[in-house]
Write a structure and sequence with these properties.
alpha+beta, Beta-Lactamase, Heat Shock Protein 90, 7-stranded mixed sheet, 10 helices, about 60% helix, His_kinase_dom, histidine kinase, phosphoprotein
Length: about 500
């Protein structure tokens, strides 16, 4: 049984077209009628104004001389029934409110009745002889004949249009049945074949151009559905392999997370060890200072005095290393942002990285534009960023056969301080430059890095309203980060 029948589609289309056309005809007729009303009203006002001027000229002298015969003759001549626009009533009163003339046409007994009739406008004129007020003339005028004539014509046009519309709608319905419903039923056959998973290409004949396009589209859809079904079967067979690969990725990610946790634990342990070393070191420093103060009293030989001086220097060196290690291993997120000296921070960083750098025969050079530079922030976090960047540089060039070097340059650039960490490497490959700042991405060997250093460092610098980026314009491998500069704090005396 066909789904599309003449009682469903063609009838609905016919009724829709009929309703739309009828509505359009009614709308146009209404607009025309309202336009005619507006035009008639304006025309009536103009006619009333012209009649008023004529009446003033015609009645001024008769009213001034109380010529009743002339007044009635002029008044009666104005009350002539016309087909479209005419005066329906006229009333003349003296300045003492006595009525000289009052008359209407077509059984209108008084001016009061005339002004209540539809399509009527009134006008009252005060008549003067020179500067003396002599009478009041009231005029009622209508264009009812004009309005009724137009309304009758529009009504006739509307009835004829609707009758023609009914006739045309039947012809349209017959046309729909022949040119639309039957071809659509053919299209439905193709749809039923698709529902039954029959993807053979069949071109229906005798279709209009538009429906022939639909038929082609259905054939293309059938071909695409068949191809996608085959693809689904392929991906279903390959799904196990994809799951295994994803599982391996997750296990690798878990391994990196565990390594990160181990590093955090090592950091806590390093802080504890540094604390334990610091206590006996304080005692040693105390006794060395006493010995230094009394070396003359004890009459120490020169070799012993030199040894005391060397031990004292080593104790200070160890104390600085412990201080830097404790700062580096703790979380500085909770620290307040306070002013700190750039030079002092870099000295602490140098103590932490110097041993690793020297052990690999790497030349390390530091240059600072202005030794009074101050920044505001968490000094511990900024030092952690520098240690990470320098450590990465060491790891990158450690196996290089050429001369190995690292430079740290600090430049004063107006409101900002620029830090340049450069090593003797030849730069980072272009394909990796966008990835190096991502969490867990690393180019180091297994268990040599977590891929978190640059990501965390970038977050720290951005939290300090600066930027951390790789400089792809440098001949060597170079990272740059910035901090806001503040004026050096003058210590009070």
């Amino acid at each position: 049984m066909s789904i599309l029948t003449s009682t469903s589609l063609s009838k609905k289309l016919t009724l829709s077209a009929l309703a739309l056309t009828a509505g359009s005809i009614l709308l146009i007729t209404s607009v025309v009628y309202l336009t005619v009303l507006s035009f008639g009203e304006n025309f009536l006002e103009n006619e009333l104004e012209e009649k008023s001027e004529f009446i003033k000229k015609a009645l001024t002298e008769p009213i001034w001389t109380y010529d009743q015969h002339q007044i009635e003759e002029v008044g009666n001549s104005l009350l002539i029934d016309s087909k479209y626009t005419y005066i329906t009533a006229l009333k003349i009163e003296t300045n003492e409110h006595s009525t000289l003339f009052e008359k209407g046409i077509n059984n209108i007994a008084s001016f009061g009745l005339a002004e209540k009739l539809p399509y009527t406008k009134t006008k009252t004129i005060k008549l003067f002889k020179g500067k003396q007020y002599i009478a009041t003339i009231s005029i009622a005028m209508t264009n009812e004949g004009y309005i009724v004539a137009i309304r009758n014509q529009l009504g006739l046009i509307l009835v004829v249009s609707l009758l023609m519309l009914l006739l045309v709608s039947q012809l349209v319905r017959f046309y729909y049945n022949q040119t639309l419903t039957s071809p659509l039923n053919k299209i439905l056959k193709q749809v039923h074949r698709l529902e039954n998973e029959d993807y053979r290409m069949v071109m229906e004949e005798g279709l209009p151009d538009e429906l022939e396009t639909v038929s082609r589209a259905l054939n293309q859809a059938a071909s695409m559905i068949e191809k996608r079904n085959n693809d689904i079967m392929y991906y279903t067979n390959d799904l196990e392999k994809l799951v295994q690969e994803r599982t391996a990725e997750l296990e690798d990610q878990m391994s990196k997370n565990l390594n990160t946790a181990r590093l955090a634990a090592v950091g806590e342990m390093a802080a504890d060890v540094a604390h334990e070393i610091n206590n006996p070191l304080t005692v040693i420093d105390l006794h060395i200072n006493k010995l230094k103060k009394h070396e003359l009293d004890y009459n120490l030989p020169p070799e012993a005095a030199q040894s005391v001086t060397k031990v004292q220097a080593m104790v200070k060196r160890i104390a600085k290393i412990i201080k830097g290690l404790k700062s580096l291993s703790r979380d500085g997120n909770a620290d307040p942002k306070v002013p700190f000296s750039i030079v002092s921070m870099i000295e602490d960083v140098k103590m932490l990285v110097e041993m690793k750098i020297k052990s690999h025969d790497i030349n390390f050079d530091i240059s600072i534009d202005d030794h009074s530079l101050m920044a505001e922030g968490r000094e511990v976090q900024i030092s952690q960023v520098l240690v990470n960047l320098i450590g990465n540089a060491v790891d990158a060039i450690i196996h290089s056969p050429d001369a190995r070097w690292i430079t740290l340059a600090v430049k004063d650039r107006g409101d900002m301080i620029y830090f340049y960490v450069t090593d003797s490497g030849n730069g980072i490959p272009e394909g990796l430059q966008e990835k190096i700042m991502r969490p867990f991405f690393t180019t180091k060997e297994l268990n040599k890095g977590t891929g978190l250093g640059l990501s965390i460092s970038k977050g720290i610098i951005e939290e300090h309203e600066g930027i951390l980026e790789y400089n792809d314009r440098s001949m060597n491998t170079q990272f740059i980060f910035t901090l806001k500069k503040i004026q050096a704090i003058q210590k009070s005396a």
